[in-house]
Amino acid sequence: MSLDYTASEMMTVTAARALENGMTCFVGIGLPSEAANLARLTHAPDVVLIYESGTLQTKPEVLPLSIGDGELCESALTTVSVPEMFRYWLQGGHVSVGFLGTAQIDRYANLNTTLIGDYHDPKVRLPGGGGAPEIATNAGEVFITLKHSKRTFVKDVDFVTTLGFGRDGKGRDGVPNIGRGPTRVITDLCVLKPDPETKELTVVSLHPGVTREDVIEATGWEIRFAESLETTSEPSVRELEILRELKARTDRKHAGDV
Amino acid sequence: MAEILSLHDAVARYVEDGATVAMEGFTHLIPFAAGHEVIRQGKRDLTLIRMTPDLIYDQLIGAGCAKKVIFSWGGNPGVGSLHRLRDAVEKGWPRRIEILEHSHAAMACAFEAGAAGLPMAVLRGYVGSDLPKVNDQIKFIECPFTGERLAAVPSIRPDVAIVHAQKADRHGNVLVEGIIGVQKEAVLAAKHSIVTVEEIVDDLDVEPNACVIPGWAVSAIAVAEQGSLPSYAHGYYDRNNRFYKEWDAIARDRDAFTRWLDDNVYNAGGATQ
């Protein structure tokens, strides 16, 4: 029987399933935060969520609007200073996975959150790097989640804010003490993984009802597909219920703020 | 020992035109009341340092106080862009500003190095990023012991740091609770510091490992009730998320922004929102 769910819900549920119990996850705000908390509320109750505001092992009841909402601190095991967060916990090697969103991604999974156009004469100025440049290199591996479109999936990003595998796919080669980098990208159409040799992002799984043409149409380079292309499992009733409750709770909380 | 001053007098004494100023507070305890006082006093040519410029620097930039902004993430958290920052960078309104951008890890380390009295911070950072190409304050050095290539950035040593905290006692000892960000580091890294507080109490009543900044390490304390709205003060009031969303429309339009500034800052001798 086919369930009724949106492409966004499909994306969040698939992203959540990437997280496993026992992982320590440094969580970006927005889509990664939604996915990470869904994981915690479903199959991975013991996943450890860390936000860059210093909140260690936090269990928010509603999704935070900002990276430093009080909810994150109140539901955390403990809260440390921001220098301690980045130095001891991230750079010190205690984070197994960094979960990031982005404005632009390219074929080697480099991320751009800085600007569109030329640096000194930008067409669009974006917020900047934040925690991502060091999360992406100091975490054991990186998951990325964003909506799929030609605007977001470009052949070469205008600016490498955050390293995926560099302009040639070799950006991590020979660098000591660096994480594995992006191991999967979850969109509202599919799941991509870097090719083991070239590091170019390759579609490994299409979401139900999505065609190769849909992905080709939404990608700014000649996208490759894995030989054994899979179909992503549909969300379960339970996952959808918990996700919808979480989002409804969140909307009520933020709308009620005065 | 910290002097207990009015917010007006603290800003007048320590924030000079052309100064390098760090107003910190990582989403939490953002010193908005003090920022508004800086705007009201018409300070100019400031170099403003903050990891997340947030609405407070959007307001200072739009009011024409800044000549340079040093930051690591310049958005409206959970909402979108800082339109006054963008207008200044993209269109030069109300004046052209210089920006210098880092990553959070580098800025956090630079504040810590400033507090530690060191000239620079070292981190395993910026690997493969284009940021070092556009920020000449990011260099790479070789570890003298292992040969590993590491990033180096100058420490942050502001002329004045301004932070908000829950409370101080009558000796100016300050208690910061909740998300503590880089407030202590900013105060210790700066030549002078102003700490605004929700209240002054007889007894701070602290646990042994609480985040306390001793009064003898602070220049001035000023009471500013609800002084961090629309951000929040853990234990006192919540973040006004609705205002953060409303700010998007206010800041998008120069006239709407100017009206907002008139109503809520210039003609509101101490507005807190």
Can you describe this structure in just a few lines?
Chain A is built from 7 helices and 14 strands. By secondary structure, chain A is α/β, with parallel strands linked by helices. In chain A, helix 1 (7-17) crosses helix 2.
Written description of the protein model:
- The complex is a heterodimer of chains A (258) and B (273).
- Chain A is α/β, with parallel strands linked by helices.
- In chain A, α1 packs across α2.
- The radius of gyration of chain A is 18 Å and the shape is globular.
- The termini of chain A are far apart.
- Chain B is α/β, with parallel strands linked by helices and 273 residues long.
- Chain B is built from nine helices and 15 strands.
- In chain B, the strands form three sheets. In chain B, strands 1, 2, 3, 4, 7, 11, 12, 13, 14 and 15 form a ten-stranded mixed β-sheet that branches.
- In chain B, β11 and β12 form a beta hairpin.
- The longest helix of chain B is centred in the C-terminal third of the chain and has 13 residues.
- Chain B is globular.
- Chain B starts with a strand and ends in a 7-residue tail after the last helix.
- Classes of the chains: A alpha/beta (258), B alpha/beta (273).
- At the A-B interface, α3, α4 and α5 of A face α4, α5 and α8 of B.
